[in-house]
Amino acid sequence: MKPTREDKICRMLQKELGDIFLLYAKKLQGVIISVSDVSISPDFALARVYISIFPSEKAGDIFSTIDTDSKSIRFELGKRIKNMMRTVPELTFVLDDSLNYLERIDDLLKK
Question: What is the pTM of this model?
């Protein structure tokens, strides 16, 4: 079990990144981007951000765009958490396809 400080930092990062991606998705009409989970290293230097993108047909293109814009997303995150953390963690984005997996299982069970 993670210490409570790590949990609080992960929840705070998830909320702030969710707000950032809400504004980011408004530029991309018809796309929903959500932050499903955030895990952070014990020294708070690295953060792994799990994002899910709907519709899944556009997920590959949008994920590559997010990956190239990671520096600007980190900068925006830094502006939002500057009073809460000393350093802004390096962000690594991971595409969370668990919803697609559940949908596929559901389709297989219906057959």
Answer: 0.84
